[in-house]
Task: inverse folding
């Protein structure tokens, strides 16, 4: 069914619902949004429910920053669990721990705001508004951390509504509608797209691909997208991938697919994971399209490395480091540009060693791998393939990682084994050439 037609149909139902409940009679009375929410929860008719849901969302859209802060506080304080109902369910379960009483206890413990959000989702375009609503909730949580309970309900419901089974994978190319291409430019979060000509260089050539996940309720709004370069070997730098002077490779001649940029598009879906499904499905689709592809790798940033290295230079802890090495690593990336060739080579070797320490041995207080990009790919079953010093010499790359980039390799036959090793034992599966860079432990 055409999605525009479906949207018009839902709007017609909502309009009919407004007539059924005499909406026009009280719309001008400036009904409080809290009362509209109570009416929505107490109603039973689907048409009237859609109309009320639309009224709540319209009222929310009109709220200023302070009003939205108050709205979220209301959700927390007024629309939590029904304590009387919950108490009775607890007593019933204690008296008889039957399956029926367990189910009743589960229902009673659910905050009322979860059902409210479900009903708001019935409004035409409701899903999109709720995603934007969660974006505002993140801002509200900065002033009121206790609103994390409200966010927990959003995250719980979004985890179901944006289940992989509902997502649609679409290829993005130069023929994709302009409104979607504009969003690709805007949402690119790793390597900024410098206008339409740059976008065309990433989409149109035979050795370039881009894929995105979409949801049926967010028409023409990508959730996440990945940019892919088809190459003859594993690249060491983003410069060679994005160069406008490179020679275009016929797709059938490529042996390697390089995932060089993955961007989440909807801030309101933060914490809802799509990337693991995206990479695996794109790899499988590319393998079907181009059977000659036998290597699937990323060219990834190392965003936490510079911050960790700075702290480690100050307090080496368990990492062996001479005073000369500490002085060398204390240089800013700007200073390093003017070094002589021998000194720069020495510094590059040291950066490679420390990047390996950072990925294989450094851990957070809870024992996790520090780097978020590393956690993502290792958790998806990739292995650490190669450290590339000088892989990203942009201002951002030098600032965040001293220019270091990483190749993670997705071996389709080993993904599950690598995932289990990382998930259950926090083991980083790494190529032997990377492990050779490790320094002896103190």
Result:
């Amino acid at each position: 069914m055409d999605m525009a037609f479906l949207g018009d149909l839902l709007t017609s139902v909502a309009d009919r619902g407004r007539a059924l409940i005499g909406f026009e009679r009280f719309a001008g009375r400036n009904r409080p949004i809290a009362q509209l929410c109570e009416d929505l929860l107490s109603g039973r008719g689907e048409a009237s429910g859609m109309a009320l849901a639309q009224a709540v969302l319209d009222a929310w859209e009109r709220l200023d920053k302070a009003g939205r802060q108050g709205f979220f506080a209301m959700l927390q304080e007024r629309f939590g669990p029904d304590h009387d109902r919950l108490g009775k369910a607890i007593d019933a379960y204690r008296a008889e721990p039957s399956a029926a009483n367990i189910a009743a206890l589960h229902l009673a413990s659910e905050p009322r705001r979860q059902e409210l959000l479900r009903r708001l989702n019935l409004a035409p375009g409701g899903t999109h508004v709720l995603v934007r609503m969660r974006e505002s909730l993140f801002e509200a949580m900065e002033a009121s951390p206790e609103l994390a309970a409200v966010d927990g309900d959003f995250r719980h419901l979004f985890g179901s509504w944006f289940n992989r089974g509902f997502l649609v994978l679409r290829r993005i190319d130069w023929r994709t509608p302009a409104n979607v291409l504009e969003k690709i430019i805007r949402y690119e979060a790793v390597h900024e797209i410098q206008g339409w000509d740059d976008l065309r260089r990433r989409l149109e050539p035979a050795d370039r691909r881009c894929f995105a996940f979409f949801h049926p309720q967010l028409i023409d709004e990508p959730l996440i997208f990945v940019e892919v370069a088809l190459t003859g070997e594993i690249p060491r730098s983003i410069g060679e991938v994005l160069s406008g002077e490179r020679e275009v490779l016929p797709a059938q001649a490529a042996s390697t697919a390089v995932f060089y940029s993955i961007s989440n598009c909807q801030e309101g879906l933060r914490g809802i994971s799509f990337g693991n499904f995206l990479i695996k499905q794109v790899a499988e689709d590319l393998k079907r399209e181009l059977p000659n592809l036998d290597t699937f790798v990323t060219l990834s940033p190392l965003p936490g490395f510079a911050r960790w290295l700075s702290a480690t230079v100050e307090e080496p802890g368990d990492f062996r480091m001479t005073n000369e090495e500490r002085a060398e690593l204390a240089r800013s990336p700007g200073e390093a540009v003017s070094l002589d060739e021998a000194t720069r080579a020495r510094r590059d070797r040291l950066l490679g060693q420390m990047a390996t320490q950072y990925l294989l041995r450094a851990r957070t207080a809870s024992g996790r791998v520090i780097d978020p990009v590393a956690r993502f790919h290792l958790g998806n079953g990739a292995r650490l393939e190669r450290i590339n010093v000088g892989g990203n010499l942009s201002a951002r790359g030098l600032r965040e990682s001293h220019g270091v980039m990483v190749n993670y390799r997705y071996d389709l036959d080993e993904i599950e084994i690598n995932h289990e090793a990382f998930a259950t034992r926090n083991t980083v599966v790494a190529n032997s050439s990377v492990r050779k860079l490790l320094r002896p432990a103190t």
